[in-house]
């Protein structure tokens, strides 16, 4: 759909940072760019309240890019979710196509920074992620 003026991005970014699901939804429906950046070059997904998987899903459904690195650190949203221990947000990013095997600016994978270490809830998700929807069908077709 039609995108609003670039000046509206900071409103969406602030709403995402607060975890304000209703305001994020309102702004996205109004056409605010889900990949717009603030003055630090960060997108709503990069600054969102990580404990708000519903906000992440909303942004992702509206086309937010889950694989855009932070301009300063090279961290991806999956690194942030893993480090903070939010497995539901991590799973939402993964389902939307975020890869779990891309290093940040210091060469660390999400598993390397996972809260609770490699054997915690986040670490177990990253070591053995569930198959993505549709992935199983493709494998079955290939096996036939």
TrEMBL record:
InterPro entries: Ank_Repeat/CDKN_Inhibitor (IPR050776), Ankyrin_rpt (IPR002110), Ankyrin_rpt-contain_sf (IPR036770). The keyword Secreted does not apply. GO terms for molecular function: cyclin-dependent protein serine/threonine kinase inhibitor activity; protein kinase binding. It holds the Pfam family Ank_2. GO terms for cellular component: cytoplasm; nucleus. Keywords: ANK repeat, Repeat. GO terms for biological process: negative regulation of cell population proliferation; regulation of G1/S transition of mitotic cell cycle. Transmembrane segments: none annotated. PANTHER family: ANK_REP_REGION DOMAIN-CONTAINING PROTEIN, CYCLIN-DEPENDENT KINASE 4 INHIBITOR B. This is Uncharacterized protein. It comes from Geospiza parvula (Small tree-finch). The gene is LOC115915597.
């Amino acid at each position: 759909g039609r995108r609003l003026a670039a000046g509206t991005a900071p409103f969406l970014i602030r709403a995402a940072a607060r975890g304000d699901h209703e305001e994020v939804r309102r702004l996205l429906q109004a056409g605010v760019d889900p990949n717009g950046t603030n003055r630090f070059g960060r997108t709503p997904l990069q600054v969102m309240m990580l404990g708000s998987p519903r906000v992440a899903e909303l942004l992702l459904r509206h086309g937010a890019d889950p694989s855009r690195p932070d301009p300063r650190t090279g961290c991806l949203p999956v690194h942030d979710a893993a480090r903070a221990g939010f497995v539901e947000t991590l799973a939402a990013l993964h389902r939307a196509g975020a890869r779990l095997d891309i290093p940040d600016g210091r060469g660390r994978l999400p598993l390397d920074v996972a809260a609770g270490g490699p054997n915690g809830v986040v670490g177990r998700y990253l070591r053995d992620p569930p198959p993505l929807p549709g992935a199983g069908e493709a494998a079955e077709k290939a096996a036939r």
